[in-house]
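Entry 14. Ran structure prediction on the chain below.
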Amino acid sequence: MPTLVWDETGERTYETGIRKGVLYPQAALGTYPAGVAWNGLVSVSESPSGAEPTPIYADDIKYLSLMSAEEFGATIEAYTYPKEFEACDGSASLTTGVVIGQQTRQTFGMCYRTALGNDIVGDAYGYKLHLIYGAMAAPSEKAYSTINDSPEAITFSWEVTTTPVAVTGFKPTASITIDSTKVDAAKLTALEVILYGADAVAARLPLPDEVKTLMTV
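Output, C-alpha cells:
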C-alpha cells in the first residue's frame, strides 16, 4: 500500500459563492414547468435533520439501533425575490399593486450554483449545481429600520422545509447535487438548457428520474 500524502498540488479544493438562483413554482401535477431568475440571492444554508439513532435493548444488551427518517431543510436569505415567489411566501394580489398576506403557501423548487476552486486555478476549477424539490417557506421576519450614516439594504430570510419526491431505485429525495468536474460536459450543458431555458423554451426543473436519464453516461 502506498503511503498517504496530504495537500498535493491540485488537490487543495474548496467550495464558495452562490449564483444563478432560479425559482420554480410547483404546478398541479407535481412538476416545475416555469422557472424564473432569482436576483439578489445572498445565501442558501442547507440544514438536514433527522437520521437519529434510537437504541433498542434486549437480553440485557444493546440489541440494535433504529434510524429515524432524514429530512432536508434550508434557510434562504436574499435582498429581493421574484414576483412569482409571493405565492410561495403566502401572499396574494388583491388588485394591481395591493398585496395581502396569510394566504395558502405554494410549494416550489429551486436551483443555484456554487463555485469549486483549487490551489492552481482558483474559482475556475468547476462548479456544483444544487437542485431542491418540494420546498415550503415558513413565515419570515422582516426588519425595517431607519436610514442612518451606515445604511444597509434589508434582507429577507425564509426557513424552508421539504417533501421528498420519488426516485426510481432509491429512497425519495428533496435535493440533488451535480459536480461539473465529474460529469460529462455535453450532458451538463443539456441539463443547464433545461434549468435556465433557451430561445422559445421556458426554464423548468426536471424531476430526479429525468436528471438521472440526462446525466447517465
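The chain has a mean pLDDT of 91. Will compare against last week's run tomorrow.
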